[in-house]
């Protein structure tokens, strides 16, 4: 069995309880374009993706072109709101206090956004310099592509099968599985709606937890089920 040598965290919706903040900004901006969408619907459709993906999808669905500066405006408004309101998921610091594995973050979000929200929650210094952004990492495709996960494994000089990923979105789970990694789904943030755990398992998560405190023992349990030495 492969030894677990790296735990990879998603950020928004996993370490940071920020998906509803992002959805509020995105829905406000869509409304300015004449598109009405509830926050719950937005999270169901787009949580774990990127503003660029949202823009492209809604342009195709609405048949209208968004302004060239649309994505930049979304980013500015979101960063301002995150600096005021972002908070960590309950138990994030306590988990990191006891987690006895190398760790990093792999996110679709840009590094500026990640630094703002993680700094507000006093988590930035607990991960840097191992905060990897598919948006700001060269030519990597964003989740559900596996690129950012494979980059993290390469940086830590470990094999994909030696990595455990914690993800709250189906796109993130699919990306990690495509990279050849094992995945724990997370449903403990405030944006999660009933039925979300099923979506994560359908995407490839081996199990799902609702508390960050359960992550260490879940990794141990998965080793007994088949896969990692601990």
From TrEMBL:
<dbReference type="GO" id="GO:0016787">
    <property type="term" value="F:hydrolase activity"/>
</dbReference>
<keyword id="KW-0460">Magnesium</keyword>
<dbReference type="InterPro" id="IPR006439">
    <property type="entry name" value="HAD-SF_hydro_IA"/>
</dbReference>
<dbReference type="Pfam" id="PF00702">
    <property type="entry name" value="Hydrolase"/>
</dbReference>
<dbReference type="InterPro" id="IPR023198">
    <property type="entry name" value="PGP-like_dom2"/>
</dbReference>
<comment type="similarity">
    <text>Belongs to the HAD-like hydrolase superfamily. CbbY/CbbZ/Gph/YieH family.</text>
</comment>
<keyword id="KW-0479">Metal-binding</keyword>
<dbReference type="InterPro" id="IPR051600">
    <property type="entry name" value="Beta-PGM-like"/>
</dbReference>
<dbReference type="InterPro" id="IPR036412">
    <property type="entry name" value="HAD-like_sf"/>
</dbReference>
<protein>
    <submittedName>
        <fullName>HAD family hydrolase</fullName>
    </submittedName>
</protein>
<keyword id="KW-0378">Hydrolase</keyword>
<dbReference type="InterPro" id="IPR023214">
    <property type="entry name" value="HAD_sf"/>
</dbReference>
